[in-house]
Amino acid sequence: MQGSASLTVQSLPLCLGLWIPAQRTPESAALGSGQQRGDGSSVGRGLLGLAVMGPPPRFSPHLAWRRILCIFFLPFISSGFAPRIKYTDKFIFGKEPLTSSKPRASTVPFFPAVRFNWSHLTPLELKDRSVGLQAEEGVGRNPYFTLEGHEFLIFGGSIHYFRVPREYWRDRLLKLRACGFNTVTTYVPWNLHEPESGKFDFSGNLDLEAFVLLAAEVGLWVILRPGPYVCSELDLGGLPSRLLQDPTTQLRTTNRTFVEAVDKYFDHLIARVVPLQYRKGGPIIAVQVENEYGSFNKDKNYMPYLHKALLERGVVELLLTSDNTNKVLNGHIKGVLATINMNSFRADTFEQLFKVQKNKPILIMEYWVGWFDTWGKRHTPTDAGDVENTVTEFIQLDISFNVYMFHGGTNFGFMNGGIHFTHYRAVITSYDYDAVLTEAGDYTDKYFKLRKLFQSVFVTPLPLLPKPTHKAVYPSMRLSLYLPLWDVLQYLNRPVVSRTPLNMENLPIHGGNGQAFGLVLYEATICSGGRLHVEARDAAQVFLNETSLGILADETQNVDVPTITECQLLRILVENQGRVNFSWKIQDQRKVFPWRTSLSTPWK
Ligand SMILES: *[C@@H]1O[C@H](CO)[C@@H](O)[C@H](O)[C@H]1NC(C)=O
Ligand SMILES: *[C@@H]1O[C@H](CO)[C@@H](O)[C@H](O)[C@H]1NC(C)=O
Ligand SMILES: *[C@@H]1O[C@H](CO)[C@@H](O)[C@H](O)[C@H]1NC(C)=O
Ligand SMILES: *[C@@H]1O[C@H](CO)[C@@H](O)[C@H](O)[C@H]1NC(C)=O
């Protein structure tokens, strides 16, 4: 900024988000994109939601395409007991020949030759513990996992405790167990647990230990994915935004500023995790190192650094990495089990995995049964029959898996991230994900299909289904009173005055940690008009005093300020819609004011 104009920056607390008209309320998230799903507040859905979702059209062109693919692979898959799927230099042995050369109709139950009896392999039953989860080699058979020496497959499902109200944790975990899963997996969001440097929050809905212990109580093992970067479609992939204060800090590298912050966080976090491990009597059977680093891959020393960081702090259970199928070569660490993420079988699904790891059991760490939604994009559901078929394939091929998401939940507050390939798009409030349970925790077609399948492979009966949660309909109400933003300002924290505009991460507030989420109002006095050029991230409303002049967003960077006769207040309300969660772009997610002003008349 030129001249002597002083700039007031008013930082708005999160609650103001409620006031901002129809920009990002959960309701508009659900309705705006024409989806029939709700957030936590969309009550009265209950079983109705199920009915509305109904069976997907069986012969959509999309499905037909899948079926053709499926038919293409079936000769490989269904050729009997002998080596069945030949992927590059490695065979996977199947358990059971398929009886038909047509894709299996999803109604035909599948019975493996040997049914599983894992009734003694739960955290409740298994008291004598000396060896945890182990990856064993197979001779003349597939490699396999053992737990305390017993052969075992991981039937995992993801539930993020921070996306589910704590009051519902037990219900969701019971439903996971009743479906036939034996393991719950969760990310751990650094930005929520350490909102200010050195100030940790593991209370209430962030009580990680309570969630893990509850899982054990319900009879589930836990695979923990502590990051530090987790992606998870969270703001900045779960990294605290204060790490963006210094532009020389390189996130997800061994840059000293970054790893020092990681070390401090891990000192605190891992100390909490260590006593919850299998060998200490807890349910944690495996811990993941970082997340999909192969897709980022900027520093070859980074993953070994984190590997060591976990070991040094007392993590003794099985360690694993998780990568997209074509990024395993970049993402794996020597001596750590590599796992992959996928949504359907392809010819090259195991190509890279087998290059880095021969003779180890296969774990699909993320089997995507749905996908997240972004603003402005249509919601595309996944067919429940496809999910059932793929999971059947996993079981037949001795492949362990983790369903992502079993229950997605909600991006509460401003925790959502954004994506940026060609355009920036914010992730919506709902994290329904078209998961196995709906956002409201209700059963779906996928749930019943998977439960039936799982029941058919166990000798012991599954637990009874928990009752659907109670739903109520709130009466409609009319808002009769409101408070304009301008009247609220006097009640907010004192404005920060600065000669140059500061991005929200660098506001000298919250003990020097800046502002992580929400909105910032910038004000400057101007005494003439002209063109205002601002690359606002992610969007901004421009006002002259209280009169709206326009909106700045991705492609609109100019707003014309009319000729004025007396000095007026230029106000720019900048909204952080969620930092991108992926790719090198995370380095550049400061929100915003790169204020490249070219108001043709200089500022006074
Ligand atoms: C399953 O295994 C447990 C413990 O090993 C055993 O007591 C039980 O009888 C088995 N159940 C069946 C149905 O085989
Ligand atoms: C990494 O961290 C150091 C020390 O904190 C810092 O001085 C340096 O500029 C950072 N960035 C790069 C790119 O090395
Ligand atoms: C955020 O993460 C997901 C993967 O979980 C990815 O598909 C999405 O594109 C990411 N956002 C980007 C690239 O900005
Ligand atoms: C705009 O705001 C300035 C500063 O508060 C005030 O002096 C001026 O009277 C206002 N002008 C109008 C047209 O409201």
TrEMBL record:
Any single Pfam family the record assigns to this protein: BetaGal_ABD_1
UniProt-listed Enzyme Commission number(s): 3.2.1.23
Single annotated GO MF: beta-galactosidase activity
Gene3D superfamilies recorded: Galactose-binding domain-like, Glycosidases
Keywords: Glycosidase, Hydrolase, Signal
PROSITE patterns per record: GLYCOSYL_HYDROL_F35
Domain Glycoside hydrolase 35 catalytic: start-end pairs: 145-455
Recorded catalytic activity of this chain's protein: Hydrolysis of terminal non-reducing beta-D-galactose residues in beta-D-galactosides
Domain Beta-galactosidase 1-like first all-beta: 514-590
GO process terms (BP): carbohydrate metabolic process
Stretch forming the signal peptide: 1-17
Matching InterPro entries: BetaGal1-like_ABD1, GH, Gly_Hdrlase_35_cat, Glyco_hydro_35_CS, Glycoside_Hdrlase_35
Highest rank taxon of the organism: Eukaryota
Family: Belongs to the glycosyl hydrolase 35 family.
Name of the molecule in the record: Beta-galactosidase
Organism: Camelus ferus
Lineage: Eukaryota, Metazoa, Chordata, Craniata, Vertebrata
